[in-house]
Amino acid sequence: MAIAGDMGRENLNTWKNKVNHCIDEAKEKLFLLSKDIWSSPEIAYEEKLAHDRLVRFFSEEKGWQVESHYKLDTAFRATWGPFGGKDGDNVVNVGFLCEYDALPGIGHACGHNLIAEVGAAAAIGLKGVLESESNSPVRVKVTVLGTPAEEDGGGKIDLILAGAFEGMDVVFMAHPSQEDAVYLPDMAVHDVNVKYHGKASHAAAYPWEGVNALDAAVIAYNNLSALRQQLKPDWRLHGIIKHGGLKPNIIPAYSELEFYLRTPNRDLSCLRAKAEMCFRSAAMATGCQVDIMFAKHEYHNILRNTTLDQLYEENGRTLGMQFTTDQNVLNTPSGSTDFGNVSYVVPGIHPYFYIGSDALNHTEEYTAASGAEEAQFYTLRTAKALAMTAVDVLLRPDLLKEVKEEFAQGVFCEQAVSKSAPPAGAASVPH
Ligand SMILES: NCCCC(=O)N[C@@H](CCCN)C(=O)O
């Protein structure tokens, strides 16, 4: 790949070193930011303190235009620029995403405080180098988007629909994990909430008067467990009984289930139809009424951009990252993210990073690791690799074009695959 006009490799390296220097200079306030978010965990769409803390962070930095409650109550946007290039040049808008929602009961067990920190650090690093190098060959704007509700709901999807990603050329974020990995296969997911309504009665005195909603939930749960054997190995189906009654001597009049349905690509219709039959048949068997409510948004799988992936990997290696080569890890579904939907509207990457602990995400041990000082080295190293990748995109001519061409081709192919899939519904469900 060529390097911008009169800017040779040496200049590119100077810029990258400067990015790293700017991030290192800010490390104390970045740790404080992350620690504050970690100390007051808030669940999806309720991240008021995290929102306020991030808004304060960017308001205290020079030069950022900060919009609090940007399109969603707990979203924000901070922008800097345009800067560099010549008046009238096209502006390259580089986006960094911050997540900051926690899990119910176990706090920041997925390390989203570190995601917020990575986004903030990378943006500060990129702005720092652009400011100090007055000869940016391209006109650049840096956008930080605070995206709530990844664990539940899909804040990024709300923001896509509200136009928040319009005009962005490329977008970066990174997610805590057990290893450094440029890409792990995140799946499409659709959440479903199911309510059974029966009739209460004394469970010993006149049980025949009751209609048992807990039985419906248990039958549905078992239907889905039986279905699992017939699913493709890389599909996932799992859930909980959220409500199962009040007391053993009251036949439960109400029960509630929550399930996640996942497939490796965006077409969830077949799995959805199969699951729906499991829920409905349980209602029929028990005489309950059933409400099946699929979540407002489906998350898509992540559309890869290998051009960006390669750059990130090269940059990460220069910083000492050892990317996993374990094929089990690289090929095993790693959950889902609403970044999947973003990856279909703007080219971007969502690498995973080691945080200095072998604890697994969504455990109390991971919560502890996400707040520990030990995670800081890895978190800032990840931010550096992202910002260095942004520098590549800005300084190497034709690279952004390549990134965008790969993106357009990827979207086109995915659409073609979706169109050739059999129609959703009963026809795709075995008898
Ligand atoms: N691979 C990203 C992990 C983040 C995560 O755990 N996301 C949730 C999203 C659930 C959406 N209902 C997940 O369970 O995968």
Automatic annotation (TrEMBL):
Pfam families: M20_dimer, Peptidase_M20
The reaction(s) this protein catalyses: N(2)-(4-aminobutanoyl)-L-arginine + H2O = 4-aminobutanoate + L-arginine; N(2)-(4-aminobutanoyl)-L-ornithine + H2O = 4-aminobutanoate + L-ornithine; N(2)-(4-aminobutanoyl)-L-lysine + H2O = 4-aminobutanoate + L-lysine; beta-alanyl-L-ornithine + H2O = beta-alanine + L-ornithine
Any one GO molecular-function label of the UniProt entry: dipeptidase activity
Entry keyword annotation includes Hydrolase: yes
InterPro entries: Bact_exopeptidase_dim_dom, Peptidase_M20, Peptidase_M20/M20A_hydrolases, Peptidase_M20_dimer, Xaa-Arg_dipeptidase
Domain of life according to the entry: Eukaryota
Function according to Swiss-Prot or TrEMBL: Catalyzes the peptide bond hydrolysis in dipeptides having basic amino acids lysine, ornithine or arginine at C-terminus. Postulated to function in a metabolite repair mechanism by eliminating alternate dipeptide by-products formed during carnosine synthesis.
Family statement: Belongs to the peptidase M20A family.
Name assigned to this protein: Peptidase M20 domain-containing protein 2
Annotated organism of origin: Albula goreensis
